[in-house]
C-alpha cells in the first residue's frame, strides 16, 4: 500500500481581509486565513479520507510555522516542506464586495520563499514507485517564477517515471501571466496529464474557445487536443461536463446552495478534490467519473457555506448532501 494517495506542489499565502464588507482603507484590523489552491485541495482530500502530502517552500519564522501547523492539524503531511532562512511568505489582501462593488484582491507574493524553490530541493526519495499514487499540479506554480516552474517540471518527470498518475489544472491568474504565456507554459503538463481540469471561462481565455460555443463543443476541442486524458470542464452554474477517452460525456448539474454564499473562494479546489477522491477511491472503476462529478459538485456546494479558503467539511457531511439530493448525473452524446 502506498504511503500517500496524492502529492501536490504549490505556494500557499497568508490571506488578510477586513471584517465583513469593510474596505481596506476603513479597517483597523485584518482577519487572517491561509490560502493556496494546492493546499486547499490537500485539506479537502485529506478530509475526504485520502493520504496527502503537500510540498512547498516556507520561511523559517512564525508565519511559516503557523501555516504548516494549520495544514498539519488537517492531517496533511508537510514533512517534505523546504524551510528557508531569511525568506518571506507571500501574502494577499482581499476586500469582499457586494452588489455593485466587486471583490478585489491585492497580491504581495513577488520573490516569496516558494518563488525561490529550486528543482534540486524536491525530495527525490518521495518520488519513487509505490511511495505515492498521484501528483496534482496547477499553472499557478508555473507562473510564479522560472525556478518554481522548473521544480514543477522535475516533479512531473519524476512522478511519471515512478508510475504515478497525474492531474493538471491551468488555474489561470491574469495577474501572473498572459493567456498566450499560460497556454504555452501549460501545454506540456496538459499533454502529460491523465486528468485535465479547466473552467469554461479559462478555456475561453487561454485557448480562444468562442463564448458562443457550447460546452459540448469545448469538450470536443480538448478531447481532440488531449486524446489520452479524462477532460473535466466546470461550467459555473451549469455544473460540470466530463469524458474519459473513448467514452460518452457525462453532465453533472450543480447542487443547489441554499441561503447566502459566504465562501466562494476555494470552491473550485473542493470540486477537484471531490473528483480526485473518487478517481483514487472508487471501488467500481466504470463509475468513478460519474461518482467523481457528483462528489465534486457536492463538495463545491458545501464549500460555499464555509468562510475562508479551505473546505473544512467531513466526508460524512458530503455523503449526507449527496443522499439528500440524488445523483443528477447523466450521459450526454457528442
Summarize the helices and strands and which ones pair or pack.
Blueprint: E1 4-9, E2 13-17, E3 31-35, H1 37-48, E4 52-55, E5 57-59, H2 62-73, E6 82-84, E7 91-95, E8 104-108, E9 132-138, H3 139-144, H4 146-161, E10 165-169, H5 179-192, E11 195-199, H6 200-207, H7 215-225, E12 230-234, E13 240-243, E14 250-252, H8 267-281, H9 288-303, H10 315-325, E15 330-331
Parallel strand pairs: 1-4, 1-9, 2-7, 5-6, 9-10, 10-11, 11-12
Antiparallel strand pairs: 2-3, 7-8, 12-13, 13-14, 14-15
Helix pairs in contact: 1-8, 8-9, 9-10
Notes on the structure:
- The protein has 334 residues and is α/β, with parallel strands linked by helices.
- It contains 10 helices and 15 strands.
- It has one domain: Ribokinase (UDP-N-acetylmuramoyl-L-alanine:D-glutamate ligase, 3-Layer(aba) Sandwich).
- It has helices at 37-48, 62-73, 139-144, 146-161, 179-192, 200-207, 215-225, 267-281, 288-303, 315-325, and strands spanning 4-9, 13-17, 31-35, 52-55, 57-59, 82-84, 91-95, 104-108, 132-138, 165-169, 195-199, 230-234, 240-243, 250-252, 330-331.
- A 9-stranded mixed sheet has the order 4-1-9-10-11-12-13-14-15, with helices on both faces.
- Helix 2 (62-73) links the parallel strand 5 and strand 6 (82-84).
- Helix 8 (267-281) packs antiparallel against helix 9 (288-303).
- The longest helix has 16 residues, at 146-161.
